[in-house]
C-alpha cells in the first residue's frame, strides 16, 4: 500500500459530478491534485455502491463539505464501480442526490491497485482515506476493513493538524496549542 511521503499515482478517470442531463460526467486526472494555490485533496474510497455502510460515509462527507472547503481542501469519493452505477445510485438514494463532490469510477481497478487498497478476494476497494498535499504527496492514510465506517471528524482533525505544519499532540484539535521543540 502506498503511504505517507509517496507521490499519489497518476490517473485519468471518469467521475459523476452532477445529475443534470448532459452534465453528469467529467474526467478527473492526477493533475487535479497538484496546484500552486495551496489546495489539499481528500480522496476516500468505499467498497461497493448500493450497500449499507457506504452511503452513511458518503452522506457524512457531504454534510461536512463546507468544513473541507473552508480548509482549502477538495473532496473526491471513489470506488471500483462504474460511473453509470454511481449515477444510478445518486439518482435513487435520497442522501446522495445532492453531493457536492465527484464520485470517481475506477472500473479498471488500476488506481485502487496502484494504491494497494484492493481487497484480495472480491477485488473491491477497502475503506481507504488519503490526505494529499498540494504537491500531490500523500500525507495521511487510513484504511478500515469492509464492515466498519470511518470517522469524518477524525479526517478533518488530522487535516487541520497537517495544515498547521506544527507538532500536534494526542487528541489535538484546531484552535488548541501546538507543541514547541
From TrEMBL:
User: Where does the Thioredoxin domain lie?
Assistant: 2-164
The UniProt entry, under Pfam families, shows:
AhpC-TSA (PF00578)
Work out whether the entry's keyword set contains Oxidoreductase. yes
Which reaction is catalysed here? a hydroperoxide + NADH + H(+) = an alcohol + NAD(+) + H2O
GO BP term, pick one = response to oxidative stress
Q: Give the matching PROSITE patterns.
A: THIOREDOXIN_2
Q: Name one GO molecular function term.
A: NADH-dependent peroxiredoxin activity
- Name a single GO cellular component: cytosol
Might you give the EC number(s) for this enzyme? 1.11.1.26
Entry superkingdom = Bacteria
InterPro entries hit by this protein: AhpC/TSA (IPR000866), Peroxiredoxin (IPR050217), Peroxiredoxin_AhpC-typ (IPR024706), Thioredoxin-like_sf (IPR036249), Thioredoxin_domain (IPR013766)
Active site per UniProt = 54
Q: Which UniProt keywords apply?
A: Antioxidant, Oxidoreductase, Peroxidase, Redox-active center
Note the SUPFAM superfamilies from the entry. Answer: Thioredoxin-like (SSF52833)
Q: State whether it acts alone or in a complex, and with which partners, per the record.
A: Homodimer; disulfide-linked, upon oxidation. 5 homodimers assemble to form a ring-like decamer.
The protein's name: Alkyl hydroperoxide reductase C
- Lineage, please? Bacteria, Pseudomonadati, Bacteroidota, Sphingobacteriia, Sphingobacteriales
Amino acid at each position: 500500500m502506498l503511504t505517507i511521503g509517496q507521490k499519489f499515482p497518476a490517473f485519468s478517470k471518469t467521475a459523476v459530478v452532477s445529475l443534470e442531463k448532459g452534465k453528469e460526467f467529467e474526467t478527473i486526472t492526477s493533475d487535479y491534485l497538484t496546484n500552486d494555490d495551496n489546495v489539499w485533496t481528500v480522496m476516500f474510497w468505499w467498497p461497493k455502491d448500493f450497500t449499507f455502510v457506504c452511503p452513511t460515509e458518503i452522506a457524512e462527507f457531504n454534510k461536512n463539505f463546507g468544513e473541507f472547503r473552508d480548509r482549502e481542501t477538495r473532496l473526491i469519493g471513489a470506488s471500483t464501480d462504474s460511473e453509470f452505477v454511481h449515477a444510478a445510485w445518486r439518482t435513487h438514494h435520497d442522501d446522495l442526490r445532492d453531493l457536492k463532490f465527484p464520485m470517481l469510477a475506477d472500473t479498471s481497478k488500476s488506481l485502487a491497485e496502484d494504491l494497494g487498497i484492493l481487497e484480495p478476494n472480491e477485488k473491491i476497494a477497502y475503506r481507504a482515506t488519503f490526505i494529499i498535499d498540494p504537491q500531490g504527496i500523500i500525507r495521511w492514510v487510513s484504511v478500515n476493513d469492509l464492515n466498519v465506517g470511518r470517522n469524518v471528524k477524525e479526517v478533518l482533525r488530522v487535516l487541520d493538524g497537517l495544515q498547521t505544519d506544527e507538532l500536534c499532540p494526542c487528541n489535538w484539535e484546531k484552535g488548541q496549542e501546538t507543541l514547541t521543540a
